[in-house]
Design goal:
Strand content of chain B: 15-25%
Order of helices and strands of chain B: HEEHEHHEEEHEHEHEHEHEHHEH
Oligomer: heterodimer
Strand order of the largest sheet of chain B: 2-1-3-4-8-7-11-9-10
Distance between the termini of chain B: 36 Å
Strand order of the largest sheet of chain A: 11-10-12-13-15-14-21
Number of strands of chain B: 12
Radius of gyration of chain A: 27 Å
Shape of chain B: globular
Largest sheet of chain B: 9 strands, mixed
Structural class of chain A: alpha/beta
Amino acid sequence: MKKATILSDTIVEIISDSGEGAQRCGQSLGAIAARMGNGIWTVEIIPAEIRPPARSVAGASGNRIRMGSGPITNGGDQTDLVVAFNEQVLLGRVRAGELKPGCIILLESLWREHKDINIKNSYIDTVEKLKSAGYKVHEIAMERECVALAGSGARGKNMFALGMLCSIYSLELQLGREQIALAFGKKDRKVVDANVKLLDAGHAWAEANLEFKYRIPAKRPSEPQVVINGNTALALGVLASGMEICSMYPITPATSASHYLSDVFEKVGGVVHQAEDEIAACTFAIGASYAGKCAVTITSGPGYSLKQEAIGLAVMAEIPLVVVNVMRGGPSTGQPTKVEQGDLFAAMFGSHGDAPKVVMAASTIEDCFYSMITARKIAETFNMVVVVLTDASLATSQQPFPRPKFDPAWIAAPTDQSPVGEGAKPYDWEVATGLARRFIPGQPGGMHALTGLAHDRASHVAYDAQINEEAIHFRSLKLAALQKTLKTPPIHGDPKGELLIVGWGSTKGAIEEAVDQARAKGAKVSSMHLRFLQPLPPGIGEAMKRFKRVITVEGNWSDRPQDELIDESNRRYSALAMLLRARYLVDVDCWSEVRGQPIQPASIRKLIEERLSVKRQPVTT
Amino acid sequence: MNDFTPACLLRLHDERYELEDYQGGVPRWCTGCGDNAILTAVQRLCRDENLRPEKTVFVSGIGCSSRFPHYMKTYGFHGIHGRALPVAEGIRMARPDLNVFVNTGDGDCCSIGAAHWIHAVRYNMNLTVLLHDNQIYGLTKKQASPTSPRGTKSNTTPRGSYLEALHPLTVTLGIQNVSFVAQAVDWIPEVLYEIVKAAYHHKGLSFVRILQRCPEWLPDAFEPWIKDPQRTQLLVHPDGVQPSEAVGRTYKNQLKHDPSDLNRAREIAGGLDPIPVGILYRNPSVPCYEDLRRSTKLRTPEYIRAGLEAELDKFTVWPQAAEA
């Protein structure tokens, strides 16, 4: 019996050509580890095309699984072990800098005997280079083993690999078998049996042939956990919020939320409407909201741009609406499958004229679920548009979180159909808060023509600029009214110190992990993560003043101060940094990258080290 | 899907509504504008059908005709340019109990909102769609619209428009799931009323193109037709419109047309002179999208909870912890 080396945290990748099943292998590994009680974070590795050419560097498809003893909040840094079905997809990952120096590579070796001399040579050449670069390459004839043991070749290789990984990480094989039964449950019993056979074979092979073995001790949480990705969490949040109608148009990476919702929404009497375009998706939701309960439309960057005029209408007419933007790389079509946080200003300031709306950003998978409930509630309480930002990373990453305990208060109240009092006006703005009771069709006495034109309290068209100004005033006040109800975001770490990192959205886990690591080495660094971007909650200005320096870490563009032309008079800061500078008159710096990948804790750690070792340069203007 | 049950509401006394119960603000359309005729026909319909004002919604886009909801004393939704149809679809999906009308112009429907028009016909939701077609952009001051006849002089086509007009009837009749198409003209109010009434009673998307005069920008567009009743062809049928004796005396050019005949409807639709007036096509058996999609279950918190818990069960790991 091999002795297992104890690990507290490790990262595994399984990559293949598209369609070879690496995704399923990776997801299953994550689920098995989660069932063992390990913390996990899985990240999909997705090529841009549905069927990229076989054996291509850009075609890697698969999954990255980070497993740990405690809770895992992000995808981590570089990969410790990778299973690759060919050397080309592996090269893609090496070149992207995703693999840790010296990492273990389990590589399908069938290419060594390939009859195409070019493929054969490419393989041999690559293996030599990887070995000389220090990678621990193990060539394994996975396909041949599968054929010999189970009578099937390429098709079952992913389950063979899963079996190997169960052995390597000392995961209970029985959990693997159960996971296969779950994953293939809809199919024939024979399919399940064949895959279990391959799993067992992979496990046995690794036990007999590999000299290394690890164990990641698991601490089982005290309450049941759900393992889902952010888009599934979003969809379940829509369901739990009591919303009835979701209208959408297909767009990556938002669509998988609608796929899942399409499958389940009808079971609770909801409807997912696939509209003819993004504008129709938004206006359909507005119509549904206007006539009853708040509706939701789910999209990504380009679709979000298309919805702007309609969003302005909802703002103007004070119709509750939830808009989800699962951000991707931009501008224009950009990088549909890659992560970016480039839409903050579009979310805040999109649509012409003064169009105040609430902007929230989910920062964890769990947050994707609860954000939908919160957003629906705010939208209906304040008769506002609530934009919820998530991103491609949250959309496709899986992380366990405590199973939500249903609360009837999540559900929207029944549509108000009570008569409206004599003389009541549809926009009877309360002076202090700007709030007004909304009149819904069906309410006797509430009849009025809602309009996107400037209007007065009676919804009569305002030709008078003064009346328009009054209405703008009250619509703006609602944000302040909401702001008064928000709590100051907690500080992660000490409430004062040398450096405060401020972030928003999916970077939360990576930032906090980097802060914890730096603090463990004595660095006086803390972080603050914002869930509400508009309005900004109270207390942020005071919190920032307790630190000598403040910097944001964001996945969007900011000009690099080292560029020759860039100086304080022209530097474009990252969105949140610009926002904090303008709001609090604090000299907030920023660090950002738009590499299309989640920001790694190591990058933030490096940033902290740099910032804490350098004396601050006086700001010259 | 709903958690209110309008069917259960007792009508303790039978209210009767009068015309003034539907009359909102004083119309600001030009004198002689065809929109006035449409408003009159619709208000009459509301009274005759005794539509409850709080249960009736007029949805419009942008343009002269889209001011329509402001002149009704019902619920109204005066939205953004071209998007009246998807807004109305959302309302319909949320609320089967409401009467939903759409007022849209030739620019609103056939230009900026053309994609929605095509798909709205295909969805066939229960909506009464009135296309106010005056063949010109009015509110933005005389630009050629997609339905302007070739040669129309406007501010954007000072030497005459270049393209043949798009024909709303033939387009609509070419779309899968079309269920009701009619054409009316503002200068025969009685027939306009009958057509709007038939449209209201049709379950599905009823599309009524109404040719209307714009005295400000195209005062002579329909003059030759108005002056010569022979150039208007009434489509008559027991299942379609049956003109009164008075109308029949003036409009002698009549064609017997069975509205269930789609191919014949398509032939008639292409006619520009004489102008066909009447119900071109009606098929009450086309399913409505909302009926295909809506659930009849009452959405109680318990019902939603059960659905949510069933889904969470699928994703829950180590359910043994739940038992502890």
